[in-house]
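Render this sequence as a predicted structure.
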Amino acid sequence: MTAMFKALQQENESLGKLVLALPKGRILDECGPLLDGAGIVPEADLHDEGSRKLRFLTNHHNLDVVRVRSFDVATFVAFGGAHIGICGSDVLMEFDYPEIYAPLDLKIGGCRISVAEPKATAGSDDPSTWSRIRVATKYPNIAKRHYAARGVHVDVVHLNGAMELAPGLGLTRQIVDLVATGSTLKANGLVETEVITQVSSRLIVNRTALKTRPEEIGFWIERFREALSRL
């Protein structure tokens, strides 16, 4: 631990601990090398999916880690429950919180948000002639913006999972979902018809916290920047 960081810790102890929000699941595993590179060693059970704990100590007494759903990382940071976080750019696009500043693309969690529909109907008519469509997604805001840009009114069926079932069961014609390999789409008879955006994980910070604790949070931004440069 550097002398600079010790001084910052003493100066900021009166403000309470910093909290770093991390997402559960695959991205948490991909965060490992970045955390190591930034010099952050959380309690071992952070990576134990069976653990009921949600908040974990680290080797820095002024920094704790919380483990939350990937969609909730941005909400915790935006509303000040956490000061720093790692979340996908898909979440930032969906919620568009003005309270969040995203200084670093961490180059992990690569995937895409795509439109998909059954292979049997894909390309059967011209989308430019559509005026209305029903779509299943957990990204209602992204979906509405996407179709609005094409002059199409979208009726969103908000699902949190199993989107691939919706077209086959007659619930919707298309889905808007996160795609990594495309194997789940293929297994359910769907094909990608359009990629809306590429997705990667970002380091995010609360803007108010950055203003009130600039040296401390700036220090961690730089630690992650350095860790990223070494990967």
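Summary. Residues 7-14 have pLDDT under 50 and may be disordered. DSSP finds nine helices and eleven strands in the chain.
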